[in-house]
């Protein structure tokens, strides 16, 4: 399927997608701050530059977009129809980098939690659920966590990428 915009326009559009201060990240920051949690943003001295860092709890928080970071089973996780080979390689590299960052942080004594974009979207319709799930994870003492919205069993647009066995659905 050919792209509906020119290569130049597509390049400009893709260049505009930032990695900091995204809507899901800002939504989570506001939610946590309102609840009294304090954190630092994008600490460059830590592997993977976590989106939020709660030093008091030795916790690194990544806010991942379901599309870019491959939230298995999520409706936002699909492979575009055009240039699939490029996208598969791109997604695979993202997942490998995510895994390496999480492992490095945990080796250094940090707890790591990934909050998926869909969980921040769900917060609009189910207020308090994300904060509750995050708080329960923080109190649990577990070293790694994934917080996402309920994922569908059967996706209308199934992901064609290989599932990472080390990463649960949420």
Give me the Rg, rounded. Answer: 17 Å
Shape, per Cα inertia axes: globular
What kind of assembly state do the chains in view correspond to?
single chain
Count every beta strand, where a strand is a DSSP E run of 2 or more residues: 5
Provide the CATH superfamily: VSR Endonuclease
Average pLDDT, all residues: 84
CATH topology: Endonuclease, Chain A
CATH class: Alpha Beta
Strand order of the largest sheet: 1-2-3-4-5
Index terms:
170 residues, 6 helices, alpha/beta, 41% helix, Endonuclease, Chain A, 5-stranded mixed β-sheet, 12% strand
Brief summary of the model shown:
Helices cover 41% and strands 12% of the residues. With 170 residues, it is of the alpha/beta class. β2 (52-54) and β3 form a beta hairpin.
Word description of this protein:
There is one protein chain. With 170 residues, this protein is of the alpha/beta class. It has one domain (18-147): 3-Layer(aba) Sandwich (Endonuclease, Chain A), CATH 3.40.960.10. Helices cover 41% and strands 12% of the residues. It is built from six helices and five strands. It has helices spanning 7-15, 23-34, 66-69, 84-107, 117-125, 129-140, and strands at 40-41, 52-54, 59-64, 111-116, 144-147. It has a five-stranded mixed beta sheet with strand order 1-2-3-4-5, sandwiched between helices. Helix 2 (23-34) crosses helix 5. Residues 153-165 have low confidence and may be disordered.
Strand and helix layout:
Blueprint: H1 7-15, H2 23-34, E1 40-41, E2 52-54, E3 59-64, H3 66-69, H4 84-107, E4 111-116, H5 117-125, H6 129-140, E5 144-147
Parallel strand pairs: 3-4, 4-5
Antiparallel strand pairs: 1-2, 2-3
Helix pairs in contact: 2-5
């Amino acid at each position: 399927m050919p792209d509906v915009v020119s290569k130049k326009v597509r390049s400009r559009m893709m260049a505009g997608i930032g990695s900091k201060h995204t809507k899901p990240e800002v939504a989570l920051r506001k939610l946590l701050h309102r609840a009294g949690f304090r954190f630092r943003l994008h600490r460059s001295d830590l592997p993977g530059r976590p989106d939020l860092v709660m030093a008091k709890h030795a916790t690194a928080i990544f806010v991942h977009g379901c599309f870019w970071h491959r939230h298995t089973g999520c409706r936002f996780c699909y492979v575009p129809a055009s240039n699939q080979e490029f996208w598969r390689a791109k997604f695979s590299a993202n997942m490998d980098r995510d895994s390496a960052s999480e492992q490095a942080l945990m080796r250094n004594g940090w707890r790591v939690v990934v909050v998926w974009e869909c969980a921040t979207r769900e917060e609009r319709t189910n207020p308090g659920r994300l904060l509750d799930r995050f708080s329960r994870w923080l109190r649990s003492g577990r070293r790694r966590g994934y917080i996402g919205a309920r994922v569908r069993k059967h996706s209308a647009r199934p992901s064609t990428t290989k599932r990472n066995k080390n990463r649960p659905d949420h």
